Amino acid sequence: MSDAILVLEDGRTFTGRAYGATGRTLGEIVFNTGMTGYQETLTDPSYHRQVVVMTAPHIGNTGVNDEDPESRRIWVAGYVVRDPARRPSSWRSRRSLDEELAAQGVVGISDVDTRALTRHLRERGVMRAGIFSGDALVRPEGERRPVDELVDEVLTAPAMTGADLAGEVSVDAVYVVPALGPDGAPLDEPRARVAAVDLGIKAMTPQRMAERGVEVHVLPATSTIADVLAVQPDGVFFSNGPGDPAAARHEIDVLRGVLDRRIPFFGICYGNQLFGRALGFGTYKLQYGHRGVNQPVMDRTTGKVEITAHNHGFAVDAPLDAETVAPFDGGRYGRVRVSHVDLNDDVVEGLEALDLPAFSVQYHPEAAAGPHDAAYLFDRFLDLMTSHRDGAGTTGGDATNQKGAA
């Protein structure tokens, strides 16, 4: 293995060994606290343009299989680990993580003091960074490139603030995930039909809906409200994804078209942030974000605490203390309350419209990877769609609470 160096935009450096592909990569450096699920993390489109630091010391122990990817490719811009596995140990493994990273051209670095790196990012905040190895680490004449030169290169990378990235990770064409029955066989007649806008969707999300008898039509991020309506959906879903929600003006306009027509809506992660902005709330960048599978969140409707999977660097700025009227267009969308809150730092983790059939959460209930505490939210969405379709409920406040006490 060749030498490698990790360079942060503030000039801090960490030396190590090349892991995966050699070369150069730039991006926003973030850390993930999950002890498991590295394959799902790597293939989560929400990590597009980010260099991911794993805080768990041993990575690659179970290798890479062909069943667990959450999308069509690895999306992280770079990968930082401490002690990579010497050889994978799992009956499901098809190749090593090192081999997979190299095959997909993902530049990584190992043998890094990830504890010191994580503490630095917690104190200074996430920032731009670069990994350099192989030919990218030396000048043409063969001498090692100075750190100042590498820092200057890191500073050329675009910042995440203001980045509109959903279109870079979304599918190009519509595809359908068929509804499934209890036996796993496709249903002739689905219980509901959903138009899911792919902003960086993970494969397990439509699968969780399909398992509940829902037919899911996954649409590109560029879809218009006419494209959404063409599905004749019982509900609309906005997925997770990368980038700054303030830059997603097209998607927000489409979402307002959904809300104006009172079509039941459910959003997760990036979808939660876009829901907040559609309602008229602001969003802001967190100092170092939430990324991992162990975040405690309280469902304020039931008082239940859930351990949840997260991957977000932005959050919704909405009042925690009481319900409020959504600010957009003089209160056009009625009352809203914060339904979920992170118990570590009081970040908004869910929104619920009280006068519309719409709700969202900031975390990942599909549990890929992560705990299954929040799986009931897919049942909640199905109940919201069926009750709205059958005329039993017209507001988010009543319809979305039915599963909360389960």
Describe this structure in words.
With 406 residues, the protein is of the alpha/beta class. Strands 10, 11, 12, 13, 14, 15, 16, 17, 18, 19 and 20 form an 11-stranded mixed beta sheet that branches. It has helices at residues 38-42, 97-103, 114-124, 147-154, 166-169, 204-210, 225-230, 249-260, 270-279, 376-389, 396-399, and strands at 3-8, 13-20, 24-32, 50-54, 58-59, 78-80, 83-84, 107-110, 127-133, 175-177, 192-197, 214-219, 235-238, 265-268, 282-299, 304-317, 324-325, 335-342, 348-353, 358-361. Residues 393-406 have low confidence and may be disordered. It is built from 11 helices and 20 strands. Helix 8 (249-260) packs across helix 9.
How many extended strands?
Answer: 20
**In percent terms, what proportion of residues is strand?**
25-35%
Shape: globular
- Average pLDDT: 94
- Largest β sheet strand count, sense and barrel closure: 11 strands, mixed
Low-pLDDT segments? 393-406
Taking the alpha carbons of the first and last residues, their distance comes to 52 Å
What is the gyration radius calculated from CA atoms? 22 Å
**Oligomeric assembly:** single chain
Q: Which structural category fits the helices and strands? A: alpha/beta
The helicity comes to 10-25%
Number of helices: 11
